[in-house]
Specification:
single chain, mainly beta, Immunoglobulin-like, 8-stranded antiparallel beta sheet, globular
């Protein structure tokens, strides 16, 4: 996963849950099934429960959804529900992750 820590707080706590907000750039080759999330290394969390957000290239938007069972971010084209395929490296945006430490 290609992420940058943003200027706002990277991680917050809500009781025993953690929240991480990151600047995410899509992969150069997105394949069906999703982009793997390595939560301990990339987010400082033991486990991710959910994530939400979208990424854009300035003219088009891709919706991002987290699949818990595979621990991957999946990308979908709005209004069609079709999973995105191909080069997503020009797309960037803020993704919010929820998990536990």
């Amino acid at each position: 996963m290609n992420i940058d820590i943003t200027s706002f707080p990277f991680r917050e706590r809500m009781n025993d849950r953690m929240v991480a907000q990151v600047r995410y750039t899509g992969p150069a080759l997105y394949v069906a099934g999703g982009d793997p999330v390595n939560a301990p290394t990339e987010l400082g969390m033991a486990e991710v429960y959910a994530a939400y957000g979208n990424i854009s290239n300035g003219t088009a938007v891709i919706l991002v959804q987290f699949r818990y069972t595979t621990q991957k971010l999946q990308m979908f084209v709005p209004n069609t529900g079709v999973e995105f395929a191909g080069d997503a490296s020009a797309y960037t945006g803020t993704i919010t992750f929820f998990g536990k430490g």
